[in-house]
Write a structure and sequence with these properties.
The chain has 2 domains: 159 residues, Rossmann fold (3-Layer(aba) Sandwich); 219 residues, Dihydrodipicolinate Reductase, domain 2 (2-Layer Sandwich). Helices cover 34% and strands 23% of the residues. It is built from 14 helices and 17 strands. The N and C termini lie far apart (43 Å).
């Protein structure tokens, strides 16, 4: 049975329509025995998504959760209750207890950005496999420390840069890097137009000192993709941006919001590839687009949710090669059940790859080193917006006590 058929049957098994079946009469709809047990640390919207996807993917089960916010725990219980009796979910009273329970072999960290480093310092003491949400840190020093911790870590330490598993980017990676359909990549353009940040507990995502700034918090996904397609290290970053519309009058605990809601970012790479990013966070839709121009053609892919009643394709992919070879147009997608689990299926395949890595199979999941470089570009972009100057990456790292040859 394929993994998707197992996934589909598990989704059916928890459907109340089939609740009349005694356990002894479940064969196709039998719930398999998981091979791994995970704890989730941080049970907001992302943590609850990890609970759902873990339970649906099937090779692991959520054992317990930790979060100091009671309502987050309530949300975790509701999510868990779709799959198992809620009383089975262990709720820990401390981070240490959640990290070091011998009943589990994996930890999923989905706490606010600025807490990642402190949580991870405790988590690595356990020696357990770790999936750390993006951005892995909010400062270069913390990101560098995490990369160093990962280098000597005896288990999996994966960073949650799951956009590389969205259908449009999976296909773009295949066409551009595996098939090399457009030749050598020369320029990269990514665009994201979307709605403002949603609410969080203590509204930490409205303040750069907690989130790392918009270009770290949200855009590390896209800078990871830049680095992946460029196949090189960034050498300079120039960015312009502002807080033009969102949260201009927003205050919380006596502080005024300071996060960017629009930006343009240009990145130059050591191999000559150039990349540019266009962000608008006060648009009435959710739209992403990537355009790769190479020596032998052009690739464009997009993902769109416009909230209109007329339904057209929500994704698209074009590979244009002119007279150099066949061109094609496609609509990349996963089965609807997978796409509905979160991030158009990206989170599901992030978990597939996490467990594959635990079980010794090769994957292209984001490493701590890749997570570090996505933060580097984001911090450089935030720095450039504030200074109005081009930021030299080597100089920025040196200012933070980090040498390139040591990174």
């Amino acid at each position: 049975m394929t993994r998707y058929r197992e996934f589909r049957n598990k989704a059916r098994a928890i459907n109340p329509r089939f609740g009349y079946l005694p356990d002894a009469d479940r064969y196709v709809l039998a719930l398999g025995q998981p091979r791994h047990r995970f704890n989730v640390i941080g049970c907001g919207v992302n943590g609850q998504e990890h609970i759902r996807v873990t339970m649906l993917e099937g090779r692991a089960v959520i054992h317990g959760v930790y979060d100091p916010n009671p309502r987050s725990i309530e949300g975790a219980r509701r999510e868990y209750a779709q799959f198992a009796p809620p009383e089975r979910l262990v709720v820990y009273d401390s981070l240490e207890a959640a990290c070091h329970d011998p009943a589990v072999d994996g930890l999923i960290i989905a706490t606010p950005n600025h807490t990642h480093i402190a949580v991870l310092r405790e988590a690595v003491k356990s020696g357990k496999h770790i999936l750390l949400e993006k951005p892995m840190a909010t400062t270069l020093q913390d990101a560098h420390e995490i990369m160093r911790l990962a280098e000597g870590y005896g288990a999996v330490l994966q960073v949650g840069l799951q956009y590389r598993y969205k259908p449009i980017y999976v296909e773009a990676i295949h066409e551009a890097l595996t098939r090399r359909s457009i030749g050598e990549i020369k320029t990269i353009t990514i665009l994201e137009h979307r709605e403002p940040f949603l609410d969080k507990v203590n509204q930490w995502n409205k303040f750069s000192k907690y989130s790392g700034g918009t270009l770290v918090e949200k855009c590390c996904h896209y800078f990871d993709l830049f680095n992946l397609f460029a196949q090189s290290r960034p050498v300079s970053v120039y960015a312009a941006g502002s807080q033009a519309v969102n949260f201009l009058d927003f205050e919380y605990a006596g502080e005024r919001s300071d996060v960017l809601d629009n930006a343009f970012v240009i990145v130059t790479y050591a191999n000559g590839v150039r990349a540019n990013f266009n962000l608008c966070m006060f648009a009435p839709m959710v739209y992403e687009e990537i355009v790769l121009c190479g020596s032998a053609g052009r690739l464009k892919a997009y993902e769109n949710e416009d909230f209109l009643p007329a339904h057209g394709p929500h994704t698209g992919l074009e590979v244009m090669r002119g007279e150099g070879g066949p061109s094609r147009v496609a609509t990349p997608s996963y089965p609807a059940l997978i796409e509905m689990t979160g991030h158009n299926g990206g989170t599901y395949f992030e978990h597939v790859n996490f467990i594959d890595r635990i079980e010794g199979r090769p994957t292209n999941a984001a490493t701590a080193e890749e997570g570090f470089w996505s933060v580097v570009v984001g911090v450089a972009a935030e720095t450039s917006v504030r200074s109005g100057q081009v930021v030299d990456i080597e100089a920025l790292l040196a200012q933070n006590g980090i040498r390139l040859d040591a990174a």
